[in-house]
Design goal:
99 residues; mainly alpha; Acyl-CoA Binding Protein; 68% helix; Acyl-CoA-binding_protein
């Protein structure tokens, strides 16, 4: 890996780490900053892809609504590199906070 790629990778990973801290620190009472359910699912899918890579769990029953929605969000990210998922997570957070 070249020095440019390595420093770019480090920058993306650092931004991802900071983005996670921001998302986790949004107080529940700050409703205007809370992501929508769709946004939360997208963040969940991107997070799982960034941290664990391609989905590696069985599809839950659609009767288990929450578990199925989370599975589906992660499944949609299948094939994306963890680094790309980190970058998209950061970009999605920036977009959400600037709306």
């Amino acid at each position: 890996m070249s020095a440019i790629n390595s420093s770019s990778t480090f920058a993306i990973q650092l931004k991802f780490s900071r983005a996670l801290s921001i998302v986790r620190s949004i107080p529940p009472e700050m409703v205007e900053l809370q992501p929508t359910v769709a946004d939360k699912l997208q963040f969940y899918g991107l997070y799982k892809q960034a941290v664990h890579g391609d989905i590696n769990i069985s599809r839950p029953s659609s009767k288990q609504a929450v578990e199925y929605a989370k599975w589906k969000a992660w499944y949609k990210m299948k094939g994306m590199s963890p680094l790309e998922a980190q970058k998209l997570y950061v970009d999605s957070l920036i977009q959400l906070l600037t709306e």
